[in-house]
Structure formats: C-alpha cells, structure tokens
C-alpha cells in the first residue's frame, strides 16, 4: 500500500541561448566562407590610378589566393564594423539633439513656470482658501444629538 511511485529522472535541456549562439556562429561562418569563395572566383579588371602624374596599376587578379581570402575577410570586418558604428553614431547624434532641445526649449519654459508660480502665489493661496471654505460650507454636517437624549 505504501509503494513508492517510480518517477523518471528529469530530462536536462540545453539552454536556449546556447542554441541561438551556435546558430549565429554557423551563419557567420557561412558568410565568411561565401565571401572568401567569392573573392577567389571573382575576376576584377585592373585599375589604373594616376596620382600626382605617376601612373599606378592595381591588379587584384594577380594576387595569390591567400591574399584574396585575407582581403575578403578584411572587407567583411570593415562592413560589420560599419554596420555597428553607423547606428551608434546616429543614436549619439539623436541623443545630442534631444538634450539640446531640452536645454533650449524645456529649461526656459521651466524657469518661466517657476517665476510665474512665484508671482501668482498670493492669488493661488487666496483661490485655495476660497475652495476650502466653499467645500467646508457645502459639506453635510451630521445632526447634533438633542439634549433630550442625554440622561444623567
């Protein structure tokens, strides 16, 4: 009658963040490998530059495959850095604009409100007194017990 119920042990699950991190890592590896593969296969015509009368020729096809892979990874790092730096710079600029608007518009309005409340404080106190007296006069007072109910 007092037999113990056999309960299977709890199954341990891997936390979700590990799966998310592994998937993001796999996607990052695939992007890097595709960028390297593209850099190894792309045919870029030579570029002729003239700087201060000196002609230079840049031929990316003449690069070794290892150098092309390093160039692709470098360009990928630059692209990721730009994707991170651009929103941060925009948010910093927006935060600066918000702070400027607060100081240019909000602070003078706050000072005007403080000065106006100081100047009008006697009128506000008289109004508060009038409201208090009006509420007190219109309040229903409980009936007073008559003297007949009091027995010595």
Descriptive notes:
With 152 residues, the chain is mainly α. It is 65% helix and 7% strand. Strand 1 (47-51) and strand 2 form a beta hairpin. The longest helix has 55 residues, at 65-119. The radius of gyration is 40 Å and the shape is flat. The model has no long low-confidence stretch (mean pLDDT 83).
Structural class: mainly alpha
Order of helices and strands: HEEHH
The helix count comes to: 3
Percent helix: 55-70%
Note poorly predicted spans.
none
Strand sequence of the main sheet, in spatial order?
1-2
Main beta sheet, described? Answer: 2 strands, antiparallel
The share of residues in extended strands comes to 5-15%
**Cα radius of gyration in angstroms:** 40 Å
Overall pLDDT: 83
Q: Tell how many strands the DSSP assignment holds.
A: 2
Report the span from N to C terminus. Answer: 76 Å
Overall geometry comes to flat
Task: Report a brief summary of the structure.
The protein is mainly α and 152 residues long. The chain has helices spanning 16-41, 65-119, 121-138, and strands at 47-51, 54-58.
